[in-house]
Specification:
The chain is of the alpha+beta class and 219 residues long. The chain has 4 helices and 8 strands, in the order αββααββαββββ. α3 packs antiparallel against α4.
Length: 219
């Protein structure tokens, strides 16, 4: 999980939005910007042998996570009026945008990682199966809202990065996503500031508990 984002939760990728190798990418980004009220940027990594392309998406917001959760839970996200419809609308719009992008290209495209950079924290979501990020993003945000008071230690400390999902590793400081869709709602990895050090903790959604990483990393 080491990256420039550790020291700067509002880290932005630089560079153009338009890529000659991907048709329709600018329209795709504009759709996400409109639906998420954010600035969208993307990186593309091609695998010519498999005729596939992995996309790394960054969405940058000029407001905090608590504000977006309030709109999401109040049911006034975009044009919808109920919290349940907010969740369905977000995933549906994201999935349709990615499906349209795929229809405009001869190679398969999917989001391998999506980072949501808010004013107070960053949420980094990894792919667990095909289209898992767009299909599950509404449910993930709903779970973030549901568990917000627990992983912020009773609203006393905000992690500066949240990794969704993580699982037990075999080496120190190594987290990897599981290969099943349900793993989004098992364990998350959290980074907290601790003077000059970074405290890494694991949050169990099932137990609503924070644990130190060494309780989960074996060997």
């Amino acid at each position: 999980m080491s990256s420039q984002r550790k020291n700067n939760p509002n880290f932005h990728f630089s560079g153009t939005k338009i890529f000659e190798a991907v048709n329709g990418v600018d329209e795709f980004l504009k759709t996400l910007e409109r639906e998420f009220f954010a600035e969208a940027k993307i990186q593309c990594h091609f695998n010519s042998a498999n005729n596939k392309a992995d996309l790394i998406l960054d969405l940058n917001f000029n407001f905090g996570l608590t504000e977006i959760l309030r709109h999401f839970n109040d049911g006034n996200w975009s044009s919808v009026v109920y919290p349940k419809e907010s969740k369905m609308h977000m995933s549906s719009c994201f999935t349709k945008a990615l499906e349209k992008l795929n229809s405009q290209n001869n190679h398969t495209l999917d989001i391998v990682e999506a980072s949501f950079h808010y004013a107070d924290t960053s949420i980094v979501v990894s792919r667990t199966s095909d289209y898992s990020i767009p299909k599950q993003i509404g449910a993930i945000l709903s779970k973030i809202s549901e568990h917000f008071v627990y992983f912020t230690k009773g609203l006393t400390e905000m992690p500066y990065e949240v990794f969704v999902p993580v699982y037990e590793g075999k080496a120190q400081n190594v987290f990897e996503p599981k290969k099943c869709q349900s793993s989004y709602f098992d364990y998350w990895g959290l980074y907290f500031e601790d003077n000059v050090h970074h405290r890494v903790m694991i949050y169990s959604l099932n137990n609503k508990e924070l644990c130190h990483e060494d309780l989960f990393l074996l060997e």
